[in-house]
Amino acid sequence: MQLISKKFNELSNTEIYEILKARAEIFILEQNIHYQDMDNIDYNSLHCFFMKDNKITAYLRAFYKDDNKDIVKIGRVLTLKHGNGIGKELMEQSLKSIKEKMPCKKICMDAQKHAIGFYEKFGFKVVSNDFLEEGIVHVVMELEI
User: Fold this and answer.
1) Which domain holds residue 10?
2) What secondary structure letter does DSSP report for 67?
3) Which of 31, 72, 101, 106 is buried deepest, with most CB atoms within 10 A?
4) At residue 68, what are phi and psi to the nearest 5 degrees?
5) Is residue 109 within 8 Å of 71, Cβ to Cβ?
6) CA-CA distance, 140 to 135, in Å (whole number)?
7) Average pLDDT of the segment spanning 114-124
8) Among candidates 92, 70, 75, 82, which has minimal Cα distance to 144?
9) pLDDT tens by residue, 59-70
10) pTM: predicted TM-score of the whole model, two decimal places
11) At 28, which helix (H) or strand (E)?
12) CA 8 from chain center: how many Å?
């Protein structure tokens, strides 16, 4: 699959709609998280995703953390179908795109605890204790560039 990697102002109306729809499907409906998804961070993010038949199949966003150009934070990582390798492909291609388009020294994320092993395969390391975010146990993970 070919990764689509765009800044917010490069996204089409259809892409924005499908991104928001996919995020709602996974985080609100599947994981039962009640939160304000549209948090203004999207405006300053790099949106990395796969589409098939004009539908998002996998997605994540990346943005500079706290206006610090040394640290990029990844969030809203999702796949619509689980266990088919698309998450691995998304991470591999997105990390390359982030390194090219968002030069940094470190990439971090608040990862759901059950996904630690998945992210460790890409070199991420746990750097925090467990904490609750939206009722789900998370840890901070970092990848040195």
Assistant:
1) 4-144
2) T
3) 72
4) -95, 110
5) no
6) 15
7) 97
8) 70
9) 999 999 987 789
10) 0.95
11) none
12) 14
